Amino acid sequence: MQKVRDYKLTAELLDSYQHAALDNARELLDEARVLLSNDYFARAYFLSLASIEEAGKAYIAFDAKGRNLKDEGLCTKIKERLEDHSGKITSAFVGWISFSDSPREAVKTSVDLMIHLKRGREKSMYIDLKSDGITLSIPREVVRPVAARDCTRLAENCLHHTERYIQDNKPSKRTTYQDKLLCIKQKTLTEMLNTEDFWEYYIDQLEHGNNSYDQAVVTYHDGFYKKKKVFKQATS
Asked: Helices in the chain by DSSP H: which ranges?
C-alpha cells in the first residue's frame, strides 16, 4: 500500500493523529504482554518497541500543533518525522526526561536504551545475515527473555510519561531553534544523536541551566557536528 504524503497538515488532523497513536500504543502494549506471557519473546519485544514508536509519534503530533503549519517546508519535515523509526523512538523519551529529578541520569539512561532499541528493532522481527556474512540472525535466538521483559516495561514507562506530558502541557509556539531543528536532515540528526559527544554537550548545557533540548541540538550541530569538531576535546 502506497503511503499518502501530499496531505494537508492541520491542527485538527494532528490532534486526531495524537489520540489515535496513543490508543494504538496501548493496544500494542497489551498485545506485547500477551505474547510475553506465552514466551513469544522476540515478538513481544517487537510489539513493545512498536508501542514505544507510537508513543513517540503521539508526541511528535502534539508538538507539531505549535508550529507554523502554513510553512510547507516545516510540514514536510513533520511528515518525515512521523514516519522515521529512529525519530519516533527518540521522541518517546522526551516526557520521561522532562519529569526526571535528575536530568543527567535520565539522559544517560535514555540514550543507552535508545541505542539498543534502534539496533534491536529489525533483529527482533526479521531474518538477516550477521556481520560475518555467513551466520544467520534469527529473532527467537537473538532476543533474550530478559530483553523482552525490559522492553515491555520500557514501553509502559514511555507511554505513561508521554500521556502525562501531553495532559500537563499545551503545544507552545515554536522558537527559531525549534524550527531550525526540524529542518536538520533526519539522517544527520540520527547520526548526531547516536554520538556520545552530543549527549555530553547536552548534559553540560543542562548543568549550566540551559534546559532547551532544541537549542542544544541546533547549537551542537552548527558549532561542532557540522564543523567536524568534538565538544569533549574543546573542553578538555
From this structure: 11-37, 41-64, 72-83, 85-91, 94-99, 103-123, 139-142, 145-168, 176-183, 186-193, 196-207, 213-220, 231-235
Nearest to residue 181, comparing CAs of 210, 227, 221?
Answer: 221
* Three-state SS at 137: strand
Residue 103 reports pLDDT greater than 70: no
| 228 Rama sector, left if φ>0, alpha if ψ -120 to 50, beta otherwise | left
13: cell is: 488532523
**How far from 62 is each of 39, 58, 91, CA to CA, in Å?**
35, 6, 11
Cα distance between residue 163 and residue 19, in whole Å: 10
Give 69 or 1, the one with higher predicted confidence: 69
- What is the DSSP code string of 5-24? --PPP-HHHHHHHHHHHHHH
- Residue 6 Ramachandran class (φ > 0 left, ψ -120 to 50 alpha, else beta): alpha
**pTM score over 0.85:** no
Q: What is the C-alpha to C-alpha distance for residues 176 and 169, in angstroms, rounded to an integer? A: 20
Q: Name residue, grid cell 516495561.
A: 153
Which of 188, 168, 152, 201 shows the shortest CA–CA distance to 42?
152
pLDDT of residue 96: 83
Q: CA 40 to CA 140: how far, in whole Å? A: 8
Q: Which three cell numbers stand for residue 15?
A: 490532534
- Position of cell 500521556? 163
Provide the 3-class DSSP secondary structure of residue 211: coil
